Amino acid sequence: MTTRRKVHLIALLALGFGLGGAAAPVDLGAMETDVRRLDDKWAHIVYQVADKGEQLREIEALAKEAATVVARYPGRAEPLLWQGIVTSEEAGLASVFDQLGLAGEARTMFERAQMIDPYALNGSVLMSLGVIYYHVPGFPIGFGNDRKARGFLEAALAMDPNGLDANYFYGDFLIEQGEYAKARTVLEHALEARPNPRRPIWDAGRRLDVRDLLAKLDQRAAR
């Protein structure tokens, strides 16, 4: 599992919601602010902190903060999604002995978010499930599953066909599957996404990720 794959590799804790029950009223403005803070800190750690040891220390601290946000807004998918994203990032930075356990926790978080609202944040819950299923090794080592990954990634892309993340992760998956021509089309479309001034660090960093994959495709084609 690489540190730049996210899984964004979206297991959520202490939820306090009843399956099938209505979520308690929350201050949506405050929740959006708290979730945005997690997003901004995650992007800073991933794209602006170069030292891997410092990255791990900061992502571990952010995981604790994310758990607090989840507890503050029980029954909401958005904080759960971001706790899963942070946990999956932690998995990518952790020792090999801890990676699979953390990835499993992240998957549980994404699944719980999916039960609340599979359409939250423009399909990001489904996308995160797809990412974690293709980043984790398959049986007998782990729970990775390319069939499930494709299903989730394509469902997320259908919800956000012009999204930068949705196209990036689907393109990355297609490369792993050896579908290089289709991957190039998808990745080129990713770069056509509108810039997001509310998430400038993520936007710039993800576009670099896309260009890195396209450069690898160019190198492969030149062989």
Can you walk through the features of this model?
Helix 3 packs antiparallel against helix 4, helix 5 (120-135) packs antiparallel against helix 6 and helix 8 packs antiparallel against helix 9 (200-222). The chain has nine helices and no strands. The two termini are 26 Å apart. It has helices at residues 28-48, 52-72, 77-93, 96-116, 120-135, 146-159, 164-176, 180-190, 200-222. It is mainly α and 223 residues long. Residues 1-23 have low confidence and may be disordered. The chain is globular and about 55 Å long. The chain has two domains: 1-16 and 24-160, Tetratricopeptide repeat domain (Serine Threonine Protein Phosphatase 5, Tetratricopeptide repeat), CATH 1.25.40; 162-223, no CATH class.
In short:
The chain contains nine helices and no strands. It has helices at residues 28-48, 52-72, 77-93, 96-116, 120-135, 146-159, 164-176, 180-190, 200-222. Residues 1-23 have low confidence and may be disordered.
Q: Low-confidence stretches at least 5 residues in length (pLDDT < 50)?
A: 1-23
**What is the number of domains?**
2
CATH-defined superfamily of the largest domain: Tetratricopeptide repeat domain
Q: Classify the beta-strand content into a percent band.
A: under 5%
**Might you state the CATH topology name of the largest domain?**
Serine Threonine Protein Phosphatase 5, Tetratricopeptide repeat
Question: What is the percent of helical residues?
Answer: over 70%
Mean pLDDT: 90
Q: What is the number of E strands?
A: 0
CATH architecture of the largest domain: Alpha Horseshoe
Radius of gyration: 17 Å
Shape: globular
The major sheet is characterized as:
none
- Alpha-beta content class: mainly alpha
Number of helical segments? 9
